Amino acid sequence: MFYILITTDKETISGAKISAFEIVKQRLKIGKWPLYKGTNFIDKIQESNECLVYIAGYKKFSQHIISKIKIQKVEILNKEHDYEEKLFDIISTPALKVLEFKPQEINDNKFINIRDEFSSIDFIPNNMKRWGIFFMGGVKRINSKDYYHLSKKLI
Fold first, then answer.
1. Domain-by-domain residue ranges, the chain?
2. Single pTM value for the model
3. What is the second-level CATH architecture of the domain 2-146?
4. Which residue did the predictor score with more confidence, 64 or 133?
5. What one-character-per-residue DSSP string does 1-52 give?
6. pLDDT of amino acid 125
């Protein structure tokens, strides 16, 4: 299966905004991606699935696919865990699972602006005014054609 992992800007406990890019950079560096209560496909995503990483929100590199990962392990947390609250000082729902993958650095030159790909991918809805709705829910499943089309641009 192929998925898109989605992160948006978050609010810190003090009320400031932290960009999704900063959150994703840290996740990629440590090779761990939390899945929270209510995340789409939380019970479907598994080892060996391949994922693209998408930055939602309004801050730096929003609306870009910035990386791809292959899941090596899905850790089920034995209790609800404030996985990133302490790391980023953010308000968050509890994490229930953590996807583990090979840690990586990202290459700013290889990011894909999703708007540039609308005519080449199937998963964006026909109503172009509402295309961002697809990227709600934390995880989205995509077909292999779209995955390979986008992932080859990250190399």
1. 2-146
2. 0.89
3. Roll (3.10)
4. 64
5. -EEEEEE--EEBTTS-EE-HHHHHHHHHHHTEEEEETT-TTTTT--TT-EEE
6. 67
